[in-house]
Amino acid sequence: MQQWPLQPAGIPPAPIATLVTTCADVWLPQINAIGAVKSAAPFDHHLSSFAAAALRRPSSPAVVPARSPKSTQMLSSSFAAYPAAAAAARRQRRPLRPCQPFCSQISTAALGRRLPMERLSITNALASPAIESVPPAPLNLSFPILVNSCTGKMGKAVAEAAVSAGLQLVPVSFSAIEVPDGKVEICNKEIHIHDPSESERILLSIAKDYPDLIVVDYTVPDAVNANAEVYSKLGLPFVMGTTGGNRQLLHKTVDDANVYAVISPQMGKQVVAFLAAMEIMSKQFPGAFSGYKLEVMESHQATKLDISGTAKAVISCFQNLGVSFDLNQVKQVRDPQEQLTLVGVPEEHLSGHAFHMYHLTSPDETVSFEFQHNVCGRSIYAEGTVDAAMFLHKKIQSGADKKLYDMIDVLREGSMR
């Protein structure tokens, strides 16, 4: 039996070990409970409580075995050495319910007073399960969703995520890319592909057949404004996941048509949270990085033609923080070999990734800051897009006055699954 690591002042170690050894066969689970608070309370308290428990007998002998004569003799010796503890033990003698935890004698309040407390901080508060907020219940929604276009990798990923979430995938999409037999298969469902020039006519018919329809757009930058005009003209709510185009005109189109829409340059949940933090910092501390030099590098699959919308949003925040920077200074990496050697993109994700790096240097070059976020694959964007569609459906059903939203609104609503 190991001795108590922390000996009370003036108390020899041997009697403590003797007492623990004496009662180990009777109160082994309770020994562990006392050991957990051995440094939190005075020694007399532990000895008297422990000895009193040893003297008490539960009603069921099956719960606690009888003490041997040797154990009784050793316990008596311990009482003789510590008369104060013996007196306290006699005072505590009272019936004990079978299987009652011994540690219940040590109150929670006493532990709170005696145990060392961690310094209060935001980090500790967030990590504490006692104050952890209950996550919102998952949304049980089912509504029709049309993904334009399902022929692209991002559109296909969103369609698969929508089916996985229990949404009704409309078997129609649009693309200028020719596909065999004019259709693609997603989650064992045939999606008929039409030319974009037919989108207005077909969407008008689809809207009649599928009430509560929401359109998700993952096409190409050049089609952003034209597609938004069609959706708005037909009064179709939509989620714009495509980057590029004239964003001011895009917002004006939605406002003029008074349709519901979620428009965001970034659909990844965690990246959206980072963007929200950047926005808050730029508004509360304008000019904090005045004079600093900014370098931006962003790497995406070779098929992405425009500068990342996320990069544009982050750069805008840095500009509000006092940094002078022009978008033509962004280093776009699209060459696969350079992505492998310079950026460090895993080879299996060359066809689908988003690596961003923002490096700040002080005017005298003695201080530097670096912000980086790397994403491999498309699932983070697909899931966020489906969350945005669910959020928009709820807003429509509730008749919300506000019509135009972004992903930060979705994040604040707590609609993320």
TrEMBL record:
Start and end residues of each Dihydrodipicolinate reductase N-terminal domain: 145-267
CDD domains recorded: DHDPR_N
One Pfam family linked to the record: DapB_C
GO BP term (any one): diaminopimelate biosynthetic process
Pathway annotation from the record: Amino-acid biosynthesis; L-lysine biosynthesis via DAP pathway; (S)-tetrahydrodipicolinate from L-aspartate: step 4/4
GO molecular function, one term: NADPH binding
Record keywords, A-Z: Amino-acid biosynthesis, Chloroplast, Diaminopimelate biosynthesis, Lysine biosynthesis, NAD, NADP, Oxidoreductase, Plastid, Transit peptide
Function: Catalyzes the conversion of 4-hydroxy-tetrahydrodipicolinate (HTPA) to tetrahydrodipicolinate.
Protein name: 4-hydroxy-tetrahydrodipicolinate reductase
Native source species: Zizania palustris (Northern wild rice)
